[in-house]
Amino acid sequence: MTKNVKWGLIGASRIAAEWIIPAIKATSGNEVVAVQGGDGPRVAEYARTHAIDRAFTSVDELLATDIDAVYVSNTNEKHAPCAMAALQAGKHVLGEKPMAMTLDQAEAMVALARDKGLVLAINHHLRGMNTHRKLRELVESGALGDLVAVRAMFGVLLPEANRGWRTESAEAGAGVFFDLTVHDADTLQFILGEKFTRVAAITSNNGISTKGIEDGVAIVAQTASGLTVQITESFAVEHANTSLELHGKKASVFAEGVLLQRPGGKLELSVQGERKEIPITHENAYPRVIEAFAAAVRGEGRPLVSGEDGLAALKFAIAARMAAESGRAVSI
Ligand code: NDP
């Protein structure tokens, strides 16, 4: 019998509590044995609540234990330093998005994981959704024909509980670029099967983020093959569903209620304007992330989203931010 992957959590976060701890517990061959958080009493309580044996305030102390892998889900500015420390300590890393705050940091993470022969994966879970997989299949099989236009709308009303550092702290990487753009970039590059090469963007502030931090952006981008893509992202959309549209020479596909944490959404194929629903069996994507990661740790495959994939998503988000700041299109 293969030994369990023993996980240590770096960051006593909501995403870990709501999605990743349950996903690890639901995936055979995996267990959560330790958690680290900055506040002693809070992390002790978190460990009790989630039946985790050991709680630490020090990342180094957590890394000195016999864990095999860490899941890094504290605030964005801590992702790269914590991942680097874990890789240095010989631990496999599943990092949260954005994988880092700068490209130098992200490249260093990818290089260190490669040098050490360790798995580095990023939790862009959206690749694990059956809706997005179906869209990938439709593109790859040629069912849509050559694509001529693509649109994404990732507009949500950011719940009160998710505000705070995400809408206020430039130091922690607040704003839509590090929250939504990285996810859209990874999902679209996965579905389209190619990378973005050029991006332009204009941001807005609609009072959800503090002044000076964007809570909305309109992005126009182009892929290596020349396809143009429009992406709208916002923390302030209250009355609409998220959506993806892929328009090809043979058919269009409209996806609604996608790009989210919970599984769900509806896909419709449109030929000559006649829409027909594509049946989808929805599944939680997070156990899929854990399963693929654990298999990669055992040397039996690759993670759902590798460090290199995370880097490609971050490159797009940083280029989009530069484009917004400069008022010019940026090559990637
Ligand atoms: P949270 O705000 O819940 O947690 C982030 C950190 O903030 C914690 O690790 C903790 O720091 C600190 N913190 C949180 N609550 C408290 C509190 N009450 N008192 C003191 N400190 C607190 O963040 P999220 O779970 O929303 O996001 C965490 C990361 O995960 C982000 O990087 C985000 O981008 C990513 N994310 C990814 C998603 C995905 O689907 N891939 C979805 C949601 C988030 P510490 O542990 O250092 O004490």
UniProtKB/TrEMBL annotation:
Highest taxon of the lineage: Bacteria
Record GO terms (molecular function): nucleotide binding; oxidoreductase activity
Keyword Repeat: no
Pfam family, one: GFO_IDH_MocA_C3
Entry-linked Gene3D superfamilies: Dihydrodipicolinate Reductase, domain 2, NAD(P)-binding Rossmann-like Domain
Domain Gfo/Idh/MocA-like oxidoreductase N-terminal: 6-124
UniProt keyword Iron, yes or no: no
InterPro entries in alphabetical order: Gfo/Idh/MocA-like_OxRdtase_N, Gfo/Idh/MocA_oxidoreduct, GFO_IDH_MocA-like_dom, NAD(P)-bd_dom_sf
Domain GFO/IDH/MocA-like oxidoreductase: 132-253
UniProtKB keywords: Oxidoreductase
Family under the similarity heading: Belongs to the Gfo/Idh/MocA family.
Protein name in UniProt: 1,5-anhydro-D-fructose reductase (1,5-anhydro-D-mannitol-forming)
UniProt organism field: Sinorhizobium americanum
